[in-house]
Amino acid sequence: MIDLVLRDAEVVDGSGAPSYRADVAVDDGRIVSIVKEAAAAGCQRPTGTRVLDTEGLALSPGFIDMHAHSDLALLRDPDHSAKAAQGVTLEVLGQDGLSYAPVDDRTLAEVRRAITGWNGDGSDIDFDWRTVGEYLDRLDRGIAVNAAYLIPQGTVRMYAVGWEDRPATEAELNRMRQLVSEGMEQGAVGMSSGLTYTPGMYAPDSELAELCKVVAGYDGYYCPHHRSYGAGALQAYEEMVALTHEAGCALHLAHATMNFGVNEGRAPELLALLDKALDQGADITLDTYPYTPGSTTLAAMLPSWAHEGGPEALLTRLRDDATAERIRHHLEELGSDGCHGVPIAWDTIEISGVSNKALTPHIGKTIADSAHLRNETPWVTARRLLLDDDRGSTILHHVGHEENVRTIMRHRVHTGGSDGILQGAKPHPRAYGTFPKYLGTYARDEGVLTLEECVAHLTSRPAARLRLPDRGLIKEGYKADLVLFDPRTVAAGSTYDSPRTTPQGIPHVLVDGRFVIEDGERTDVLAGRAIRRTAG
Question: What are the Amidohydrolase domain coordinates in residue numbering (predicted)?
Fold first, then answer.
């Protein structure tokens, strides 16, 4: 007897082709039968232990979040409704060059402190792994949704070189090559960088190219948060295209957008650059989230030289009045590399979360507003936050442009990624709303994409980038990672005021053929596992 039959579903199969009506049978975690227009044809309909009437609902492959920061959240929060309720059945972790494997004891302590704002300090986590393989094994004990992993180049550099702003020695470069090779052997799908984050940003292009050659040898891809999304954005994109061309490595551009006033309306220039490379045979994809503000840590805005030596060295510089004034000068007048070469506008920096509860009154206010309330300059407020919160404050950065967002999401190699940071009292709503917002706002309401196109962007395209041979489509033999949603009502519930509200119109989500969301409620099923590299 078949485990489950989804009766009379409107199948949006992930290919981009027109939807069709069918009964879809699931057994032992896979799609075993698709009977199109079963009722009208009068043929033998599949039966199963359970038959779910899905009339009025669309059935699609599970959504793949190509840019997730759930590296610890998946371990600490078995519920994980932030993603499961959106229909996400696979997340790609290890983003922006900073995560928790591979590490030794020193590096683990340093990276935990460096990205407290993204993932918490980890005091509630048993870090019983050090290698990429051990981390993936930890995920295999059972998580809410599946997860793939990118080797974080910044962590690798931290491990082999430390926090110094200098080229690696040949011995250090060989050690980094070894760490990347070991991580790929153990199942990583590629490598990420955060080239506005230290210490990864200290790597010259030649060093990055050498590591990308290792990744290419395993048929993986390079996923850079590149060196600028502001004043030097187009040049930064060009740099990544040229670097990966030299290395012979596939390229996936993280949260690919054009931000700040200098880039308003310039998305077509980016797409022309990518189209030229694609037409010449380059293997390039990108992801975006359907919102205008970005999200990161307040400390990330500072110039890279201020971070050299690690977190404690940064705090020492901030405590010194003369050095702090130099930091302010770079931020407010020159435009720091951490702020993408653009002089910082404090009225665009909204505090979304703090580690020190005494600083809670700042949440939901811009630095400019908090400074005004305290009758002080914005830099005085920002400096105090950085020190009193041990660099742990997270921000929303209101520097995006809706026209650019819409233009880029139409592109032929576009995929969806939430870039969702789940920490903080008031996180970015994209963490809870990215995928239903694509379906509801941009497909149904705005018509920027058709429903079929939209689903393809969120399913088969990312699956192809990840080299997954049996995911991303509704097809016999494929894994039964599935979403049932109502195309008439699906919508993001999360807002800037209530960012942790789950979506509406997504009643059922299956991972490995098992319901993780059923009738709109999270079950206790932990069917997710690590998805390891399968090619190369």
Answer: 50-517
